[in-house]
Specification:
The complex is a heterodimer of chains A (147) and B (208). Chain A is α/β, with parallel strands linked by helices and 147 residues long. Chain A contains four helices and seven strands; from the N terminus they run αββββααββαβ. In chain A, strands 1, 3, 5, 6 and 7 form a five-stranded mixed β-sheet that branches. Chain A has a two-stranded antiparallel sheet with strand order 2-4. Chain B is mainly alpha-helical and 208 residues long. Chain B folds into two domains: 46 residues, no CATH class; 138 residues, no CATH class. Chain B is built from seven helices and no strands. The radius of gyration of chain B is 20 Å and the shape is globular. The chains are: A alpha/beta (147), B mainly alpha (208). At the A-B interface, β4, α2, α3 and β7 of A face α1, α4, α5 and α7 of B.
Chain lengths: 147, 208
């Protein structure tokens, strides 16, 4: 979506204010371990689907991503692109190719999806838990992929 | 990013373009300044042949017989589309259909019950709340149709598939009718789901 296409009602939505945080440095890109965090409401087929107001997340396994589905509550964005090619919202194949070409160091074992569509503050606890998961997986580069 | 809503990497089945988007995002990790606000200005490529005529579904749905119900129309439509759905699923190796954990027959029966006089209450085989099940069933029905349309010749765009589903299919009409009739449903969660999550805002014009 282009910036000028964002509805006025969304532009004026009150948002939580956060203090500016200094950017942290890290290793060069070709040495980083990269994970994806999506807000597309993605899940494995056996997971519980996202429901209205969900603040939790689902864990997406790099090794078995063929059964990943979308259960986002919104009906206002296109899902046919994701149905045709998962990489349009969850670019795991592209990350694997970048790792094979040495552009990034490695790919995390697990990736994550929230649904969004609720107040960010309500997702704070889950986000902090997710950060611990990332640290355990030695991730030092994160790509946030919204829909 | 100047992409269609729901396609953050720009376009399906275009690895080169997806790599450019991902590279731009990954390069932000090496920026030392901040906060960073950067715009990816490259438009997502469209159809290979821009002169190609607009896509239209090659499956001709039978005209409605005078005694045919909406449920029968949807079931007939599913029967005609099934080979296309199967073809796409086999070629890709996966499907987005199945969040509701209901079969297509169960989905149609469940959705039609929202148009009947008797209020929908708990139904056998429904695993989630009525409101959540309504949402998942409606999305599954749309996923089945969308994936059937995607498998057909002509490389339909997202807009073409959306307009076809909501404007030309009995399934789209069924879900639109549920939205109209369940706004004041006895279950407030059903009212919320029908009001905000079944039919895209862009398609609201069809029902005035």
């Amino acid at each position: 979506m282009k910036a000028e296409e964002v509805p006025e009602s969304l532009v004026n939505t009150p948002c939580e204010e956060y203090e500016l945080t200094e950017p942290v440095s890290g290793p060069a890109l070709n040495q980083r371990r990269i994970a994806i965090v999506s807000t597309a409401g993605l899940m494995h087929r056996d997971d519980k689907p996202f429901a209205l107001g969900a603040v939790d997340y689902r864990i997406l396994d790099t090794e078995s991503h063929q059964d990943i589905m979308m259960s986002h509550i919104s009906t206002n964005f296109d899902r046919s692109g994701f149905a045709q090619d998962h990489n349009v919202a969850l670019p795991l194949d592209r990350l694997h190719e970048k790792a094979a070409q040495g552009e990034i160091g490695s790919i995390a074992r697990y990736h994550y999806s929230f649904m969004g569509a609720t107040e960010p503050e309500k997702m704070k606890s889950a986000a902090e838990q997710l950060a611990r998961n990332l640290r355990f997986d030695e991730v030092d580069g994160l790509i946030l992929v919204p829909v | 990013m100047p992409f269609e809503f729901g396609r953050p990497l720009g376009v399906p089945d275009n690895a080169d373009f997806q790599h450019r988007v991902l590279t731009a995002a990954l390069n932000l990790l090496e920026r030392k300044d901040g906060p960073v606000f950067d715009v990816f200005n490259e438009e997502a490529p469209g159809r290979d042949d821009e002169t190609m005529e607009c896509w239209s579904c090659p499956v001709t749905f039978a005209k409605k017989a005078s005694d045919e119900t909406l449920e029968q129309l949807v079931l007939n439509e599913i029967r005609l589309l099934q080979p296309w759905f199967d073809k796409g699923k086999n070629e890709r190796g996966y499907t987005s259909f199945g969040v509701s954990e209901m079969s297509l027959d169960e989905i149609v029966s469940f959705l039609v019950s929202f148009l009947e006089d008797t209020p929908v209450s708990a139904k056998p085989g429904i695993k989630y709340s009525i409101a959540d099940s309504l949402k998942y069933a409606a999305e599954d029905l749309k996923a089945f149709h969308n994936e059937s349309a995607m498998s057909q010749p002509g490389h339909a765009t997202a807009n073409e598939i959306e307009n076809w589903y909501w404007g030309e299919t009995a399934a789209g009409r069924l879900v639109r009718e549920i939205k109209q009739s369940c706004i004041d449903h006895a279950d407030p969660m059903v009212s919320i789901v029908t009001a905000f999550t079944l039919v895209p805002h862009r398609q609201a014009f069809r029902d005035g």
